[in-house]
Design goal:
By secondary structure, the chain is an alpha+beta fold. The protein is built from eight helices and eleven strands. It starts with 11 loop residues before the first helix and ends with a strand. The protein binds zinc ion (2 copies).
């Protein structure tokens, strides 16, 4: 195999891994942006791999020809972004704040779409002693934000990594409800001009500018509400 020429195609490596079904290496790529291994980042990798095969997609170029509509903002989404190349920044990732670990991929070229919804709920009984231990450590470290001793933190990482990679060998039916769906119409991302805020001097997208005493100002300088995506989902920030 020749050296990878990233200038020619930044996704050459991922495209090759997808073609060969190198799931562990794909999870490794997702880990690069996600920062850790966990079951949901692995589910995102699997969802993308399965969807691409069902739709006959070999790659995406981040030009909105392939769209991923996610219904949550958890670890699942990073597996999807890394492997599919549909990201928040290239507008090929659409986020619906529905709180479901689910994704719909749309291929605009064929007008086909497939939705995958994770079966895992976290409500089922732990599978074994390690699963129980991993959940307890998760509750302490993440839910209750306790500071774990280094040995326990290391153990959690070890258990999570094991769980994450084990997802890759599970049958599709155990992981997801998979269904071909009618693709919904999503407009291509519009390109807006920028205007300069007369108060702070920064440039802002014109649809986010306000008029104040006849002059354009940005949302912040206007003191207006705006929307924010954070851990709890999409929510308004401001006076409301
Ligand atoms: Zn994670
Ligand atoms: Zn301003």
């Amino acid at each position: 195999m020749g050296a990878i020429d990233r200038k020619k195609d930044p996704r050459e490596e991922i495209k090759g891994l997808l073609a060969k079904g190198e799931l562990e290496k794909l999870l490794g790529k997702a880990g690069e942006i996600h920062g850790h291994y966990c079951s949901h980042v692995a589910l995102g990798v699997m969802a993308t791999y399965i969807a691409f095969r069902k739709l006959g997609i070999t790659d995406s170029t981040g030009m909105e020809e392939i769209l991923a509509i996610v219904e949550c903002n958890n670890c699942f989404v990073d597996g999807i972004q890394a492997v599919s190349g549909c990201t928040l920044g290239n507008n090929a990732l659409i986020y619906k704040d529905l709180g479901k670990t689910a994704v719909t991929f749309i291929d605009r070229k064929t007008n086909k779409a497939v939705r995958l919804a994770a079966k895992y709920s976290g409500r089922d009984e732990p599978k074994d002693a390690e699963d129980r231990e991993a959940r307890e450590l998760f509750d302490r470290a993440v839910k209750r934000r306790e500071k774990l001793e280094p040995r326990q933190a290391e153990r959690m990482k070890e258990l999570w990594t094991k769980m994450s990679f084990s997802v890759l060998s599970q049958p599709e039916d155990d992981l997801f409800h998979v269904k071909f769906v009618e693709p919904e119409t999503i407009a291509y991302a519009p390109i807006f001009d920028s205007v300069q805020c007369s108060s702070c001097g920064e440039n802002a997208m014109e649809t986010r500018a306000r008029m104040k005493e006849g002059k354009a100002v940005c949302v912040k300088c206007a003191g207006d509400d705006y929307w924010m995506v954070a851990g709890r989902g999409i929510h308004p920030v401001g006076k409301r």
